[in-house]
Amino acid sequence: MPLAAGGFAEFWRDNDNASLPWHGPAVIEAGSHFEALSFIQSNFGTPGNLEVVSRMGDQLAHSWRNSAAPLVWSGPFDITGV
């Protein structure tokens, strides 16, 4: 979810724990202002990267988190094609 102070919040559920606890928020890209986000699980990597397409003003951007530790985020990269 986009945060008013900048960045977005990532929450995740531990499906390997019988009580299915939620974790977060982890603040991602705190220096950027996102207005809208769309998340998908891609088929790049195993089990797949977490991918984000975001709206930042009148531009679209792409970010992703790799699927293996240390779970590093890359982006946002402009995909508007201005």
Supply Rg. Answer: 14 Å
For the biggest β-sheet, the strand order reads 3-4-5-6
Uncertain segments:
none
H/E topology pattern: EEEEEE
Instruction: Work out the number of β strands.
Output: 6
Sheet with most strands: 4 strands, antiparallel
- Number of DSSP helices? 0
Class derived from helix and strand content: mainly beta
Number of domains: 1
Q: Tell me the β content.
A: over 45%
The rough form would be described as globular
Helical fraction equals: under 10%
Overall average residue pLDDT: 89
Distance between the termini: 26 Å
Notes on the protein architecture:
The chain has 82 residues and is mainly β. It has one domain (8-78). Helix content is 0%, strand content 48%. It is built from no helices and six strands. It has strands spanning 8-13, 22-28, 36-41, 50-56, 59-65, 73-78. The model has no long low-confidence stretch (mean pLDDT 89).
Protein traits:
about 50% strand; two-stranded antiparallel sheet; single chain; about 80 residues; globular; 6 strands; mainly beta
Q: How do the helices and strands line up, and which of them pair or pack?
A:
Elements: E1 8-13, E2 22-28, E3 36-41, E4 50-56, E5 59-65, E6 73-78
Antiparallel strand pairs: 1-2, 3-4, 4-5, 5-6
